[in-house]
Amino acid sequence: MKKAPSNTKAEVTIPLNEVVISLYESEDKIYPRSVSGFFTQWRWVMIWLTQLFFYGVPWLEWGHRQALLFDLEAKRFYIFKLVLYPQDLIYLTAILIISALSLFLFTAIAGRLWCGYACPQTVYTEIFLWIEKKIEGDRAARMKLDAAGMSSKKLSRKAAKHFVWIAFALWTGFTFVGYFTPIRELAHAVVNVSLGPWETFWVCFYGFATYGNAGFMREQVCKYMCPYARFQSAMFDDDTLIVTYDEARGEPRGGRSRKAEVNTKALGSCIDCSLCVQVCPTGIDIRDGLQYECIGCGACADVCDTVMDKMGYERGLVKYSTQNALTNNWSHQQMFKRILRPRVLIYSAVLLLLITGLLASLWFRTPFRVDIMRDNAVMGRLSDDGMLENVYRMQIMNGTEETQHYRINVTGLKGLEIDAKDTKETQGDKNKVISKESESAENAKQANENDHTFMVKPTESRWVIVALKVPDGAAESGSHKIQFVIEAIESKETVTEKSVFLVPR
Amino acid sequence: MSDFTSGFWPVFITVIALGGILFCVIMLLIASRIKVVTSGVDNTSDHVWDGDLREMNNPLPRWWVGMFILTVIFALFYLAAYPGLGSFAGKLGWTATKQYEQEVAAANKALEPMYAKFAVMKTEDLAKNPEARAIGERIFMNNCAQCHGSDAKGSRGFPNLTDKDWLHGGSPAKIEETITGGRIGMMPPMAAAVGTPEDVKNVANYVLSLSGSIYDSGRAGLGKEKFAACAACHGPEGKGNTDIGSANLTDNIWLHGAGEAAIIKRINEGKVNQMPAWKDKFTPAQIHVLAAYVWGFSNNK
Known about the structure:
The complex is a heterodimer of chains A (505) and B (301).
Chain A: E1 17-21, E2 24-25, H1 38-56, E3 61-62, E4 65-66, E5 68-71, E6 76-79, E7 82-84, H2 89-110, H3 113-118, H4 120-136, H5 139-147, H6 152-177, H7 183-191, H8 197-217, H9 219-225, H10 227-230, H11 232-235, E8 242-245, H12 247-250, H13 275-279, H14 299-311, E9 318-321, H15 323-328, H16 332-339, H17 342-363, E10 368-374, E11 381-382, E12 387-398, E13 404-411, E14 417-419, H18 436-448, E15 453-456, E16 461-471, E17 478-488, E18 494-503
Antiparallel strand pairs in A: 3-4, 5-6, 6-7, 8-9, 10-12, 11-12, 12-16, 13-15, 13-17, 14-16, 17-18
Chain B: H1 8-32, E1 34-38, E2 44-49, E3 53-56, E4 60-61, H2 62-81, H3 96-119, H4 123-126, H5 130-143, H6 145-148, H7 172-181, E5 183-187, H8 191-194, H9 197-210, H10 217-226, H11 228-234, H12 260-269, E6 271-275, H13 284-299
Antiparallel strand pairs in B: 2-3, 5-6
Helix pairs in contact in B: 1-2, 3-13, 5-13, 7-13, 9-10, 9-12
């Protein structure tokens, strides 16, 4: 799908010769010309939306913490009200599947929407290009500046550009790390020059990646590294919206005076101004047809429209269209009708199902978890009061951000009694000295004893030892199925866990 | 490399690793200048498949070649520094075991001040210290609960740690000693010393009478005399002796089962019971914390 040699390459006609070639090539730098128009406007809207989100959200607060924080060290993901734990990894899977399906859906409908409008690589390239344009000028000025010898003017321009680039990149790196460490503390650390070694490393690493990718690598990433660009062909079909050049209308191309009527010189609408090539951020010529380098940004469509306006021709020589619409000369209406094809409908249905499922499961998710293990060392034993006893270890995990009390009940065997005491004295602060206060807490605890209520601190889990008793001889020997019913007193939610009670022979 | 008994494998690995790197370098060099037949017009190599599928020359970007070269250089440095070439240990002398030991040492060092603080605290205070109790609980759950139960109440053969009955003494020092060195509880078979099976049954009933259990008073009276054989360890009153770990027979706590049959069985067969020593697994400071936690079971009321 490589473009035919463009006019920049010397066209030497060597008829089937043996020649020595290099399989490596130093890239020509691409100087995309700035462009304005409908699609460009949308691109900037998307840039503002995504970047306001990216740079803004870490600063939002929720209660006494950062609203969106992926605390890898403590293994807690805070997403506004939601607190996720390693056990909730399934949600990550769901989000990844939803993301993948969305990509399929959007690509099937409108091609590389992601690439052109939302991908960080294009978004940051666009921002860096904008900075470059503000400092060095547009395409022609930049080309001239690069070609010129070193001068104080060139030096100052280049230095200014790299300074702004690096500052912006470091801010990006800082923000990125702010999703994983509380960003306000991070900002404090930066101001006080007390940033930890790892945080410094990651800020610099992501800063450097932004600077390198958006400042220098640019289209090279899309062309040589991005896998998504490479499996586009599997996601496209003849009804997928792509940026196309209307060859039937445009050819034969050729220059002409502005006043010339169309077709007077047996020419098509294309005036061969090469602006579509100049604005292309990946440096291709859209008139050669669909190429894998095309990120679907629509810059060529925008610039061509302005040229068509100037010439007084109809817009849309380069436009978003589909293969079928182009060959069959479909109207817009016919084209949009074809977008609702089975493939799109099935993607949409599955996607909707998944999103509903994810939201429902998040909605009905109980904010605490219980794990019960019967003590295998003890099996069944006789207690001092002649009762038959089984011991269980129960882990209660409080998923909320408030202290919770959990009441334990058991069903499934007649005469089953619970013997469980909140033996932990760590109810208050960690290092609390035994004082009057804790004595009264002790009293309250004793009152709760018949209740079998256990306190678990916010977002923590604790082990609770529970002994179950039945009068000796009350149950047949063997294993009896029982259920633990754990009730969260504050949140009024209940979790039922199965277990067994062993009666030895 | 100790997993490989044959000297062939280290050599094989070395050859594969270095050969792979050399192959990459050679490929990079060959591809930098290559002779091809080309039409020269449209960048194709003139190779055609299936009638119309033509091969193009799409050159690799030069910076990518640079990255390959960097990778090769990195690989060589890596193989020199770390064990990757068969039995060659690497200049840095890194091993997984060493790294593990370093991490353990670092973790212990980080905990040192805390344990130092605990080490000078008295057991009585430590048992009330929430931080120490949390540590003690974790150690207990991971190492002791397997025998003594999660609630430390034990079961047949495994002593209950929450009552006041201690075979080897329940003072803080004694508990630390028990954890550190382990214990062996040993009662020899006493049937021969006691006499006939009838005598054994009588002694068993006498023993039952000591703790106020249900017993046959006639047999108990007959057995009292024969109890002399047991008194050597359990004492004339059957109160046991924590110095030698003999059980107190006057409380109603039976480690190896209550009732006449169980006691007869013990007299006939004796019993050897062992608790392992933990001094190799835990530091004295850790044992101090654990002992305080265990002591707290019966003394924290």
